[in-house]
Structure formats: C-alpha cells, structure tokens
Amino acid sequence: MFDFTIHALKTSLNLRTLKHNILCSNISNENTPGYQAKKVEFETQLRDALHLENRLPKFGTHTDHFIFTQLDAIHPNVYEDPYGNPSLNGNTVNRTAEMAELTENQLLYETSLELLKKKISLLKYAISEGERSH
C-alpha cells in the first residue's frame, strides 16, 4: 500500500525505538554490580538496504508492486559493549556516553518521524486534490 520511503521510515522508527530501550536499560542499570552495558547495531544494515532501492526485485500481482525484503531482513545486533571500562563493581555503563548516544538517537528518531509526517501529508494532499477534480 505504501511506497519504499514510508516503509524505510517505519523501519527506522522501529529500530530507533529498540535502541532507545537498550540505552535506557543501560542507564537504569548504571549502579547494578556486574552489569555489562549493551549496544545495538543496525545502522550499517539500514544504510545498505536503503542503497538497494533501485535494485529491489519487482514481483507481486502487478509489475509495480515491490516486496521490501531488504528492509524486512534487517536484524539488529544487540551485544555487550566490548569497549566498556568496568568500574570497581564490574559495571561497564558510562552514563555520559549513554546520555549522548540517547540524545543522538532521539534526534534521529524525531527526524524520521517528521519525514514520515511530511510524506503522509503529501499523500493526503494528493488524495484531496484528486477528489476536487471530480
């Protein structure tokens, strides 16, 4: 029903939400002895999938139907931060770094959300203009 851009923005929002949850979990566990900070990696897969837009396979009930397999195949990698510097209690959370990453992720989420709103507004405009011409 929707085009590649809407699907890509939806995917980005979902992945940014996951990253937000991981970062918040790290921050909330900053005083938990032995807690290992987690990281999530999806940006490379998302970037690679977005560059494949013109090479997506076309198939379905109509020649213009796309199957967004590259975006649907993105599986974020959640892992313990191998560069974490353990404190005396073995915790590897760096609150300052986590807060900076949380802020960056929030800005990217909000940017994706604004782009999605604009895309939907354009679709609404196109639909309403079509109704006026009849």
Instruction: Please describe the biggest sheet, giving its number of strands, its sense, and whether it closes into a barrel.
Output: 2 strands, antiparallel
H/E element order: HEHHEH
Helix content: 55-70%
Question: What fraction of residues sit in β-strands?
Answer: 5-15%
Radius of gyration: 20 Å
Helix vs. strand class: mainly alpha
- As for the number of domains, it is 1
- Please tally the β strands and state the result: 2
Average residue pLDDT: 85
Instruction: Provide a count of the helices.
Output: 4
Low-confidence stretches: none
Shape: elongated
Rounded to the nearest angstrom, the distance between the terminal CA atoms is 23 Å
Strand order of the largest sheet: 1-2
Q: Brief overview, please?
A:
This protein is mostly helical and 134 residues long. The protein is built from four helices and two strands, in the order H-E-H-H-E-H.
